[in-house]
Amino acid sequence: MDERKRQPDFICDPVPENYRRRYEERKGKYRNLAVAAVVLFIFGIEALDALLSTGWGLAEGVLGFRGWSRGTLFLWALLKGMLRSALFVLLPLYVVCKWHASLTGKAYAAKIREYEAGWFSGFFTAECLITENREGQRKCWYYSEISLVEEDGGAFRIQSGSGALTILKMYLKRDSVRSIRNHLQRYCSGVYRQEFVEEEEKISLVLSGRNTLSATGKSSQGNPQEDARAQKEIREGYLRYVRDSMPFYYMETRIWIGGICAYYLIRCAFSESRQLSLMAILGIALIIIGIPVLRQVRLLSGRRAVKARERQINAGFPSVLEIGRSGVLFRSGGEIWQPWEKIRKITEGRDCFVIGRIYLPKGNLTEEENGQVRALCQKYAGRKYSFEEERPQKMREIMRTFLPILCFAIFTAVVAIGENRLEWWNDRSAESGTWAESGQAETDTTEAERQEDTQRNAGAGDQGSREPVYVTTPDKAALHLTAEEIQIDNCYSHNEANYASRFFIDSYGTLYGASANEHGELGNGTTEPDITAKGFYRETEVARNVCHVSLGEEFMVYLTDSGVLMGTGKLPTEDSPGFTTAALELMSDVQYVKCSDYGMIVLKEDGTVWCAGRLCDRAGNVIREYSGFEQVMDHAVYADAGRRTMAVIRSDGSLWMWGDNSSQQCGVDSRVEEEFREPVQVKGNVRMVWLDRLSFSSEQEYQGYLENVSDPEDQYSYNVFWTYILLDDGQLYACGRDGTFVEVTVIEE
Known about the structure:
The chain is α+β, with helices and mostly antiparallel strands. The strands form nine sheets. The protein has a five-stranded mixed β-sheet with strand order 17-37-36-35-34, with no helix packed on it. A four-stranded antiparallel β-sheet has the order 1-2-3-4, with helices on one face. Helix 4 (70-116) packs antiparallel against helix 10 (395-430) and helix 7 runs parallel beside helix 10 (395-430). Mean pLDDT is 81; it is low at 56-66, 209-221, 430-465 and 701-716.
């Protein structure tokens, strides 16, 4: 009994090393380092976000603690960001990792238990061989009852009166093989039959040519059908090995790193930046598509390798494998030489050996050759040699692998959507009025309803969520920012220019134009330009007693001192189809007019607003088209038009806008709506609005100003934002570049 308690002489362990390794290392070798890296990464992101927010005033606007120092605001923003990340990133990711580790542990524990059913250890005593399984059940094989012991390249086979025992060598270590051989030769020498003699130094095997050759070099001619069947089995075995060696398996380390990457990709996909969002969506799509694509690429590579090998066989190139003290050499048209110190791993499966980069099917070898390959690899490779096995993953196993990651991705997406909606509702509640449906029906609202809207919109001047952005202008006084009420004659433009024309009014009320006159903009009865000897357009008198001028892409309109609206060129009205090369009266009793690219907006003396032409987006698609002059609103005190948008300020101070909103120039988040066909209320308590530029006249009135700006996007100049508004409290806001209604401070250049 004491002898039986010693260490076993051999252990027959059929559990594949890869399954055992995955079970034991399911947390990952560098899991703690990965967790620390994720936490530090999140801390860095939140610190950067807090730094930017306090540096640009976001924290002050959002938190509302204007009495705090910037350092205190930074710490508060950092604390809030880290708390949010802990609740919505680290904690869910920790749960996902533990969940995934639990699923992985249970799956591989079940596989290990399945293989352990064939596990047993052995003890040699003076009377018998004792075998013991995992449950502690023992069986004695008395030498006196053993009738036959056979050793071949694959196993030891023992026949006894009490049964048969097979000990497969692929489950044994090299020392165990030698121990079994020595003990059986000692105690069962009379019945021991050894059909396998282990080579001590090296072997050289001719594996295949047109016919299969044995280790002795003798040809074993077979019929063609049998050869084809054998080659097919080898080919399918290799492709099966390639496919099954790519399991969907992740340790906790990979889950932490992959989870944080997935989190920020999903967050970026829901960001306000369209470019960043598209890039993130593209990245997610590439990852989702890339996993099966990479598997297919590897399978395709395997198929190409099989076809190349078959071509070499058909060409008569034999495959020669040499295993010796210095390493492994494989020749088959080319050479693969691998010294033992360069080989990272040698594995044996049920159907093949994988020696570094060499795949060696067992079906291409005899039992003795398999034994020689195993013996020499165990001898020279030592611990690098292991028994492994890959099974094809079933769909439920794959889904179980991805289920925790998928749940985390869905949770992150839901949180991102919820935060975006909350931010949108906060913005909407902070804004004056609503941007909901309006239009012509609003003209029928009662005065009491308008007063109700005004009261509801009170305090809208606090909309800005950033510190003031400084906007430079060469003539701040011309904006009349400090006037309690801006008069309409202060809004008249005395200078308008586009790529082909310039019209200006001198101090005597005379309108002059210099134009290519392609559409008859000069009103001189022709469409021919008047060019000087130096190649410039000549400044030509167009009309007198003019107080205001506006210019579209293909036409020009001006307002006389008596309130008559005149126009020339390709006017966007039904009354003037085609080109009008002479000034045409369009409307009387007009206070103000402004042109978009292909339309115009007119404010009449009675406060009604009329539109003609069409509004188009940046791509030229029509957003809204009017049939002649159509009334769109009433009770208006001011109307303005940009290239692709229009705006109206009503008597109650509400601001209404419509047209292209792709850059948030209508004061509404472009994720909510990218264009408005009808006027929508976007602000209250508004005194003045400017579209496309913070000025009443074209920038060519300020000649030389833009020469100092290499790129208008490089600094906040007066023509960078799309929309500027002045509230009753004297505060100026802008939208269309960094969000909706960013606080602006004007300084003179």
